[in-house]
UniProtKB/TrEMBL annotation:
Biased composition (Basic and acidic residues): 40-63
Source organism superkingdom: Archaea
Domain DUF6788: 44-106
Protein's UniProt name: DUF6788 domain-containing protein
Stretch list, region Disordered: 40-69
Length: 107
């Protein structure tokens, strides 16, 4: 690891670079964790929106609960080092999730 201060990405706004340069190491680690989670959330939202725009609604899966729309997709969430399946779909501007079950480690 280099002892020189790293250079920020060229496309990162100056206000963000300045705020990060003034942050403590603990705040930087918290910001990195939050930024990663936020990026995943935004990517998932974009994917769900793109899928919602798809006019071809596939046949309803056999294991889809009655209260989950046919346009729902399955997402894997990791909680406390355990992985779980969730049905996920968009309702207006929000994304709704419903627990499906644990991920089988053999899959």
């Amino acid at each position: 690891m280099s002892y020189e201060q790293p250079s920020p990405p060229a496309n990162l706004p100056t206000e963000i670079v300045d705020a990060l340069n003034e942050a403590t190491p603990e705040h930087l680690r918290d910001a990195a964790s939050y930024a990663e989670a936020l990026a995943e959330h935004k990517e998932r939202e974009a994917r769900l929106e793109e899928e919602a725009d798809d006019t071809d609604v596939k046949e309803r899966p056999d294991d889809l609960p009655d209260d989950v729309p046919a346009k729902a997709t399955i997402t894997i969430k990791e909680i406390n080092d355990n992985r779980y399946y969730y049905w996920q779909w968009r309702e207006g501007d929000s994304v709704t999730s419903k627990y499906k079950g644990p991920v089988n480690p053999d899959e």
